[in-house]
Amino acid sequence: xxxxxxxxxxxxxxxxxxxxxxxxxxxxxxxxxxxxxxxxxxxxxxxxxxxxxxxxxxxxxxxxxxxxxxxxxxxxxxxxxxxxxxxxxxxxxxxxxxxxxxxxxxxxxxxxxxxxxxxxxxxxxxxxxxxxxxxxxxxxxxxxxxxxxxxxxxxxxxxxxxxxxxxxxxxxxxxxxxxxxxxxxxxxxxxxxxxxxxxxxxxxxxxxxxxxxxxxxxxxxxxxxxxxxxxxxxxxxxxxxxxxxxxxxxxxxxxxxxxxxxxxxxxxxxxxxxxxxxxxxxxxxxxxxxxxxxxxxxxxxxxxxxxxxxxxxxxxxxxxxxxxxxxxxxxxxxxxxxxxxxxxxxxxxxxxxxxxxxxxxxxxxxxxxxxx
Amino acid sequence: xxxxxxxxxxxxxxxxxxxxxxxxxxxxxxxxxxxxxxxxxxxxxxxxxxxxxxxxxxxxxxxxxxxxxxxxxxxxxxxxxxxxxxxxxxxxxxxxxxxxxxxxxxxxxxxxxxxxxxxxxxxxxxxxxxxxxxxxxxxxxxxxxxxxxxxxxxxxxxxxxxxxxxxxxxxxxxxxxxxxxxxxxxxxxxxxxxxxxxxxxxxxxxxxxxxxxxxxxxxxxxxxxxxxxxxxxxxxxxxxxxxxxxxxxxxxxxxxxxxxxxxxxxxxxxxxxxxxxxxxxxxxxxxxxxxxxxxxxxxxxxxxxxxxxxxxxxxxxxxxxxxxxxxxxxxxxxxxxxxxxxxxxxxxxxxxxxxxxxxxxxxxxxxxxxxx
Lengths: 372, 372
Prior knowledge:
By secondary structure, chain A is of the alpha/beta class. Chain A is built from 10 helices and 13 strands.
């Protein structure tokens, strides 16, 4: 298995495309794919199933003697996880034409060691002499359909004994970076009334995020403080700086944005109450949700029925490269069950049989869409 | 300036002693000193003033033609700050005869990179072939007095326009390490009711520390969460582990221990409420306060009067090597003003004139105690 037999190209940021030409190569192609990068201390199925599954789906179709009408493409998206540069879905976001991101990558994006995105890309053999990242953008008519196979990253399919989830919408994510600054000082000598502890401001804001999410009253609203860092980080030093990164998501963009507004109001109020400075409250991204294409959803449903695989329509609460591909192509996603819904931790697992079922639905749906 | 002219010895953990023999070398000596290590991102006066000041005090006495009766010693204590091994006042605590520490250093103490204390000490040229750290312990009758010159690390002397603070007691410190563990998971896919977020448990406990300290009703009670770490530390991952390090101090040991008990009760209650595990609640040290020796206090007061330096009796809210030296020797401490009371941050500063005043009082007090 591999990309052999496909014509392969890489773009300037490391997205990889493997193409199987159809007998009408002038028609917009049908694409499928996902990512293979991971967050620290995570599992090995998130993303990878959709890449290896896509390659296997094309191999199965080849072995069966199928001849595509529209070309079929496998895409390996670069940097879906925000691990290094703090930007999620970097590859697909850029493919979808984000001018803001193209500018940021060229000028301001650095990793935790202050290495610029441009230097890192060049070191890895990309962005050779290219100053304009807009050549990575894909045109809206480039694909007639984009499909992504992925583990559910939630417990529903396993709990309900279903093989296939057909995604009708992807929840809208937003990321916020917050910095507080106080005077710090010695943990023994500075008395409590004289303190403005940036760490306690961060602790209060983390709890406020949870409160505002729960106050929304909606099960579909989530909010997480995954990063909370204190400076200088010594047991006998009052934190003089704190840094939080907040993730909020919803299938309702307006409701999510109201939660963000409340988080902002809390950050301002906490800073005032504790006499710390709110030196940054930056909404890093605030993406709209994506709705799956109706005809692709129907094709996936029909295929699941033909294969006698129990399935249901569902929402993706995690977001994916599909969220951004939906901006330039009709989009659909397939979920398969995963152990207890675990994801982003080492216990993440999907059974071979479930992966095989997902690949079957993917392959047959790609075949149908190719002939469409 | 330096240790030249003194007979110098080092012990097995890197405490350094410079001795000026008196004309009655068989009498217990008078010692003075402090530390030269620092926490990250800190200042350059904490500790250093008491080491360079001690050396200068002995030099001044030599230049003046003074002949000590009791020998005078300068001590440079190793690892006063807990930076590397998480143990504060490592050197003086061991000199004062802590068997618990001697055992821990030999068997269980490691730094953040899992390097053992023994390996680090040997790499630095200490603990050569020695298996028993009890040879570092000093006898109770070894010194007739121990004095430490130090910046106040608080705002009182500067605010009141005083040159010298004479310490009557050192507040009792305690350090606690806490770990929470939950299931972690994906920040999008795991819905709020299904979460047990170790990071939010840590945030709640940090605020509980502040609450219990304030509830004590005493200005002398302080509590600080200087370290709060989340694992895995990714924006799109619910924290599965959190680690806090808490510092509490008081001049009243009983009141401080009541605060620790309340913090423990909160940790248990928060773990239960949030369905996380409290995998560690460890009181790393819980030291009693130290009371200065009355005759040393009187000698410092008399000297300050003779030098026409405005002074006051005060409490040390920060703790020092003196806290542990008080276990084996009559103890006294001298404070000098520092800029705005700042300490443990780069803005820490003491004026040359204030340092000179402190050295004068130290030198004359050492001379008196030497002749005593």
